[in-house]
UniProtKB/TrEMBL annotation:
<feature type="domain" description="Cytochrome b5 heme-binding">
    <location>
        <begin position="3"/>
        <end position="82"/>
    </location>
</feature>
<comment type="similarity">
    <text>Belongs to the acyl-CoA dehydrogenase family.</text>
</comment>
<dbReference type="GO" id="GO:0033539">
    <property type="term" value="P:fatty acid beta-oxidation using acyl-CoA dehydrogenase"/>
</dbReference>
<dbReference type="GO" id="GO:0005737">
    <property type="term" value="C:cytoplasm"/>
</dbReference>
<dbReference type="GO" id="GO:0050660">
    <property type="term" value="F:flavin adenine dinucleotide binding"/>
</dbReference>
<dbReference type="InterPro" id="IPR006091">
    <property type="entry name" value="Acyl-CoA_Oxase/DH_mid-dom"/>
</dbReference>
<dbReference type="InterPro" id="IPR013786">
    <property type="entry name" value="AcylCoA_DH/ox_N"/>
</dbReference>
<protein>
    <recommendedName>
        <fullName>Cytochrome b5 heme-binding domain-containing protein</fullName>
    </recommendedName>
</protein>
<keyword id="KW-0560">Oxidoreductase</keyword>
<dbReference type="InterPro" id="IPR009075">
    <property type="entry name" value="AcylCo_DH/oxidase_C"/>
</dbReference>
<dbReference type="InterPro" id="IPR046373">
    <property type="entry name" value="Acyl-CoA_Oxase/DH_mid-dom_sf"/>
</dbReference>
<dbReference type="Pfam" id="PF02770">
    <property type="entry name" value="Acyl-CoA_dh_M"/>
</dbReference>
<dbReference type="InterPro" id="IPR037069">
    <property type="entry name" value="AcylCoA_DH/ox_N_sf"/>
</dbReference>
<dbReference type="InterPro" id="IPR001199">
    <property type="entry name" value="Cyt_B5-like_heme/steroid-bd"/>
</dbReference>
<dbReference type="Pfam" id="PF00173">
    <property type="entry name" value="Cyt-b5"/>
</dbReference>
<dbReference type="GO" id="GO:0003995">
    <property type="term" value="F:acyl-CoA dehydrogenase activity"/>
</dbReference>
<dbReference type="Pfam" id="PF02771">
    <property type="entry name" value="Acyl-CoA_dh_N"/>
</dbReference>
Length: 517
């Protein structure tokens, strides 16, 4: 609908309580009734520089542009200034950002990359559109109300037409013969496709939400897929990949985290060998509150064994309130004499350590993809804020101290992405066995560095946003969430220090014995 044409003089007549118009980006808003409801108060709108005037600069120094897109505020539009056009371009779903360094170089015009082909680009486009049009709003709502992702989102991700859930397990036979989101052929799907998808999904900017969005599946389902016994394996795989059921990985305990060998949950075999009885507790289980199945690490007579435990008698989950939202469904679980059939054993009896360790590299690499991209999102937020926020009569970008911070932030995200792409290229060109022996150290160092960088970027971003970086709503909401939750990546999937140490211990094994300085 076209808006009525108005002159600035006409707008200037409406400059008092009960009769109040303002211009924002050439659009005239009637705030007469809204002023009393304005979250920033009525007084600021009656200021001589605002009432009846062009308030574009002051508006964008205080609000995100998305405020103006909300239907309840869009209704306040009554006209457009004669002969002028909107200067602020609202991105369409699927658009690439035009802010420098907001996209990795492979998505930046004029840059080339040896790693990505048309199929990666087509997947990127499809996921970006889905995130912009659906996932972002769902993530923001759930971060606020603490609930898990909506049924529509879960259905879409599990749909046979998109196969998003299946893609999140990485390349493999489970994708063969399938047509994937963005028209990608299952056989063509490689680690770069997975990187693209993971990096696009984190743009929904809900850290707890993201973990609740089948994060448990990414780590809990591979042991079933790779070590499960038929027919249970296929049944659970189909149920979880279609989003009908939810699974999580239950390893860590109040007694043991990174020290997997120190687990205390026990599994005892019945005399006839047909069942196992499980007793113990698990803590910090991502998605545990939503789960129908748990992939559980247990102490058995000769070591560790992994079992698939369905929710049922003797299984109880309690919500743990962590620093990110309860949308993640983080649970404390108690197993009280839970009896399961022997067919639910995943991998060999007492051979559970291998089952658990076998997915560690992939899990850590996925976390690097997410961490590097969310750090970049924060850099984009900072660049935009510094360009539109005026202090002492100039944009923040005019302050050398701010530019110095931005320089290091940009350099860090560029370095992380380049290293990540290099590691991903190696993954595409190594067998699983080669990856285990050559890349465990690289991936451990990369994750350690990505999360260190996140911590530094989070810290700088808050300094740049000031109080807004500590406020859950409004301008700094993404920065606030990032600084509050970036630590999850530094702890989950192997603590920063443990990973650094792992990398060095791995290299020690390969140090040449016949060489001296
Ligand atoms: C169409 C017109 C406007 C709408 C719909 C609107 C809406 C809002 C909303 C939703 C907030 C809460 C914070 C957020 O979500 O970003 C807010 C805060 C605020 N608004 Fe407005 N606003 C409008 C115009 C203005 C103008 C012209 C000024 C000029 C002074 C102003 C000053 C403020 C202030 C000072 C705050 C508090 C900001 C903070 O807490 O950091 N608003 N406004």
């Amino acid at each position: 609908m076209s808006l009525k044409s108005m002159t600035r003089d006409e707008v200037a007549q409406h400059n008092k309580a009960g009769d109040l118009w303002v211009i924002i980006d050439s659009i005239v808003y009637d705030l007469s009734k809204f002023a009393r409801l304005h979250p920033g108060g009525a007084g600021v709108l009656l200021d001589a520089e605002v009432a009846g005037k062009d308030a574009t600069t002051v508006f964008f120094g205080l609000h995100r542009h998305e405020v103006l897109l909300k239907p309840q505020y869009k209704r306040l539009q009554i006209g457009q200034i004669e002969g002028s056009k909107r200067k602020i371009k609202v991105p369409e779903p699927g658009d690439l950002s035009r802010v420098p360094y907001a996209e990795p170089t492979w998505l930046t015009p004029a840059f080339k990359s040896p790693y990505y082909n048309d199929s990666h680009r087509s997947l990127q486009k499809a996921v970006r559109e889905f995130v912009d049009s659906t996932l972002y709003a769902d993530a923001q709502a759930c971060e606020e109300n603490g609930k898990r992702a909506s049924a529509e989102v879960l259905k879409f991700m599990g749909d046979a037409k998109t196969n998003i859930n299946a893609m999140r397990l990485g390349p493999g036979k489970h994708l063969h013969g399938k047509e994937l989101f963005g028209g990608v052929k299952g056989e063509d799907f490689d680690y770069f496709h997975e990187l693209v998808m993971t990096q696009e999904l984190v743009r929904a900017a809900g850290r707890g939400y993201a973990d609740g969005l089948n994060g448990g599946m990414v780590i809990g389902l591979p042991p079933v897929m790779n070590f499960g016994q038929e027919p249970l394996r296929t049944k659970v795989l189909n149920e979880v990949l279609s989003s009908e059921k939810v699974i999580s990985l239950a390893i860590s305990e109040a007694f043991a985290g990174s020290d997997v060998a120190g687990l205390r949950t026990t599994a005892v075999k019945s005399e006839d060998g047909k069942t196992w009885t499980i007793n113990g507790t698990k803590k910090w289980i991502t998605g545990g509150m939503h789960s129908d199945y748990f992939t559980v690490g247990c102490r058995t007579e000769g070591g560790l064994t992994v079992f698939l435990v369905p929710r049922g008698e003797g299984v109880e989950t309690k919500q743990i309130k962590t620093s990110y939202s309860t949308a993640a469904g983080t649970a404390y679980i108690t197993f009280d004499n839970v009896v399961i059939p022997a067919e639910n054993m995943l991998g060999p009896e007492d051979g559970g350590l291998l089952v658990i360790l076998s997915n560690f590299n992939h899990e850590r690499w996925v976390m690097c993809c997410g961490s590097a991209r969310s750090s970049r999102l924060v850099v984009e937020e900072c660049l935009q804020w510094c360009a539109q926020r005026y202090v002492f009569g100039k944009p923040l970008l005019a302050q050398p101290v701010i530019r110095q911070k931005l320089a290091f932030m940009i350099a860090k995200v560029e370095a992380m992405q380049a290293w990540l792409e290099n590691v991903t290229y190696q993954m595409c060109n190594m067998s699983y066995k080669q990856q285990s022996s050559n890349l465990a150290g690289q991936i451990a160092f990369l994750k350690m560095m990505c999360t260190r960088v996140s911590a530094e970027i989070g810290d700088d971003a808050v300094q740049i946003f000031g109080g807004r970086g500590l406020t859950k709503t409004g301008m700094g909401k993404l920065v606030e969430q990032f600084q509050r939750t970036q630590k999850f990546d530094a702890i989950l999937g192997g603590a920063e220090e443990v990973l650094g140490d792992l990398g060095v211990r791995q290299l020690m094994r390969k140090m040449p014995k016949d060489q001296r300085l």
